Request: fold
Amino acid sequence: MIDRAGARAREAYARAHGHLMTKPPHVRWLYIAAGLLLLLVTLFALWIALLFPLTPGIEDVKQARVARATVVVSADGRQLASFEQGVQMKVPLSQVSPNVVNALIATEDHRFYDHHGVDFTRIGGALVASLKGDPQGGSTITQQLARNMFRDEIGRARNINRKLKELITAFKIENTYSKPEILEAYLNTVPFLYNTYGIEAAAHTYFNKTAAQLNETEAATLVGMLKGTAYYNPVTNPERSLARRNVVLGQMLKAGVFDEARYRQLVKRPLRVHFARLAEHTGRDDHFTAYVRRWLVEWADKNDADLQQDGLVVQTTLDYDLQQAALQAVKTQAGALQAIADVDWAHSWPINATTTQPYVDMRGGVNPFEYYWSSHGELLETFVRESASYRKAVDGGENPVAALKRLKADRDFMRQLKAAKSRLEAGFLAMDPNTGEIKAWVGSRDFEREQYDHVSQAARQPGSTFKPIVYAAALEKGIAPDHPYLDAVTTIRFADGTEWRPTDNSGTTGRQLTLRDGLVYSKNTITAQVVRDIGVAPVVKLAQDLGVRTSKLAKVPSIALGTSPVTLLEMVNAYSTIAAQGEYRKPVFVRRITDRNGQVVADFGQQTPQRVLSQESAVTLIDMMRGVINRGTGTGIRYRFGITADVAGKTGTTQNNADAWFIMMHPNLVAGAWVGFNDNRVTMRSNYWGQGGHSAILLVGDFFKSVLGSGKISADALFPGGHKPEPVIRHEEAPPEEDMEEGGDMQQEGGPPADTPQPPDNEAPAPPQPELQQEGITLPPPNDA
Reply:
């Protein structure tokens, strides 16, 4: 078969060749040229056919003209962020000055109304001019729109493939839209520098007016920029811009837009630019919207959504009013704590005040951290050696000693380094335990200055805020709240032969304390015995079940004292599970996504809770944690903020005051805060202010006082078995606060106060409790609830 086909082909070729040779030479060449041309046309058509599927489809083109950015909104519909490209202010063509349209067509595409997307006459002319050494562009307005609409699909490379894709897309656009619609789409998408897109935004940016108000020279200036926005920028290159503007006016004259006399008037006018860079009105990111944005990008990839064009509305769970209350609490209270750190480390002597105002008043008169840096010279040198500038210098060949000396002598570098290391940071999170919805999220004191998120990214030791998980595991094992433990330093031996001897900074009483009081007064000695009795594995398992599901927990005994780093998001989630009486719900931050027509695309609001802690144990644990607020390490909630709602919580502080935590549960809202320095080698100087019960508690207390007072959450809501405590009565004279210092695996929040019910008389007497002088108004001890 193959031989027969080959023979036939050879015969056909011989006949064609014989026929061709009978023709005169000039006719033969015409036949050959025609054949080559036909071959080229066939190959070109094949090329176009192969490229056609790689260009945007008709539906994509339809969608692109009405492109609308995805917006992120709060639970009540207030815009939080947008996926627009820069500043865009879209307007219909009817709200664009005719001067703009005339200038655009006269300059960029004077045969706009005569072609069907591609002007082959202009392309030919541009090719001839380029061959003569005068490079010209041959793109029509429609082709430029194709590039603006579909940058990724068409590409940016300067090659024939990109140009052909552009031509094909231009034909599709012309087949889909009318000429006015193409002009409108083009003028709303064209870039004008300064992250500004579209003629309306450009008019506001460069001339402080609307697109409808642009006169001939202003329109010519903006259209003139399209040849090269940076090169013809009227702000930075006014002379070039003026010359280019006059070229555009000349093109408008040739097109008959105005007469010669008018042209002469216009070219004499100065630019008269009124530059004012527009704020990004689409919503500035914060840590919450940045988190949502990252999640949305992944969601969009999986669901074939275009966040810049589909016009989706992403309704988050964030409560706008609660978020404002959280922002204000962090700003006010973390700012006060920064003043405390600045003043305490300014001199060789500490201030020892127990209210924030003295520090705030003194802040302006001290050199912050002056004493710290003078007394921590080795640490400061370590910070220099760890800096990117030092590593870059050494990697570049500079002598390490010389690099260190040079950087230490660089005042600006040292000032910035010290400022970064001595800046106190904070994280705050609030969520609804009944739904898992995030209601407030503050990742740092200032997002613009610190994008590192202390809610979801920063893993820090939780200190004693981890202890409720230990006590929950004990309750699940059947250990009763009134089970007695000896408050004494005990050597705990484990099956593998290891020994552990945790201590309390506040000392021990040598008496029997109940499981309940071990949690209320955050006793390391008691907690260690509890984990000895129940084992480490159940504690780790329960922590993961409750919500600590991202951080890797170390399966060691000291985990009971909060030595294994976790995030604030995980800890607040775990407390929310406790507040929900043992039902776990994963954190929800997006409630639903709807399309531009309001149709639900995805719904995340409903989830089935998972029982991870028995209701009986959860209710008992909540009651034990009420004691933390009423008579333990969290009494500042009652004393400082006068909160009388039925709340429960736990404080936490780690070694050397590196991390301060406080998390509080209300039946309808759980909120937690972390306070510390990014580098945990820098700490609060004051053992008083270094405690979570005196620092992080300020952020949570301020927040709850605001939202309870405004009625955003009910002050009358009760946990099972709860009742609303009596209002705190402020007396002028009252016992001073106890110095309940918290700590990590070898430190302790503090022992029970002196008025703790005493064990039987045959027990050893309790040592005297240390007192701390209270400044300002003193308060009575709270009643146990």
Q: What stands out?
A: Residues 730-785 have pLDDT under 50 and may be disordered. The radius of gyration is 36 Å. The chain is about 45% helix and 10% strand. Residues 25-51 form the longest helix (27 residues).
